[in-house]
Amino acid sequence: MTDTVASQKFKAQGDTAYRQSQFAQAADFYSQAIQADGTNPVLFTNRAMAQLKLGQFTDAANSCSQALAIDSTSVKALWRRGTAYYSLGQFSKAHHDFTCGLALEPTNAVLSTELEKTKKALESAAASKAQLPRSGNGITTPIAGSTPQPMSVPQSPQDFERAWREHASVPARLYKYLKMVPVARLPSLFRASLESTHIADITNALEHGYQTHKDFDLVFKVLSTLPSIDRFSLALLFTDDKVKERIHHLLKQLTTVHDVDAASLTNEYR
């Protein structure tokens, strides 16, 4: 037996909690709304959004699957499940969902961008697998003692992407690379491929640069440029709140220590 009134009450509470970035509470409220009325697919996609923000990608995918069981034409459920699958590294499943979503909404620019990004991830994964040496029994083995390639200014977005994968895991190296790349070129180099993981990597590198070299100039230039990159808003949406807090701390340092007016910039990273 459904209780639509109670369900809508819990949904409203979930919406409020989500707007206040209280994602765990939002997910709980949406779950209570679902218990009151499990026939509304919007409740499942809303819960999935909160779960994505919490990094609960498997749970988010399951919530979207439940929504699709009720409404197989829910583009929002396909998009969010594809996003969850992508975050889990399940690129083939993500590709399927984004393709299905585009079939329903051919002009959906976000889905089109997500699909292209997923195609690149599939190609990159296939290329990486192909490059691994094989042992005598045909099993791929990692390259022992591999070292990073020498850094150089990227000539194309493809060069930039390859170098990023090479250096992103080590903040000191990524900081050095960001120092080498003209900041004004970041929008054209990232194009429509900016992800929340990129924002986290950049934050790690900028923190290293500031703490080790007091390089507040690079901090300000990079953080000022990121909002102009395609998909920045979407990437920020999936950025962990702790990463945002660290960005706000860097901006606060610019304001209090270096007398840089970063107030308006702080609002870009809410």
Notes on the structure:
- By secondary structure, this protein is an all-alpha fold.
- It is 70% helix and 0% strand.
- Residues 138-146 have low confidence and may be disordered.
Keyword list:
mainly alpha, 270 residues, globular, 15 helices, 0% strand
Q: Give the tally of β-strands.
A: 0
List the total number of helices.
Answer: 15
Strand content bin: under 5%
Order of helices and strands: HHHHHHHHHHHHHHH
Summarize this entry quickly:
By secondary structure, the protein is an all-alpha fold. It is built from 15 helices and no strands.
SSE topology:
Layout: H1 4-19, H2 23-36, H3 41-53, H4 57-70, H5 75-87, H6 91-104, H7 109-131, H8 157-167, H9 171-180, H10 186-190, H11 196-213, H12 216-225, H13 232-237, H14 241-256, H15 263-268
Helix pairs in contact: 1-2, 2-3, 3-4, 3-5, 4-5, 5-6, 6-7, 9-11, 11-14, 12-14
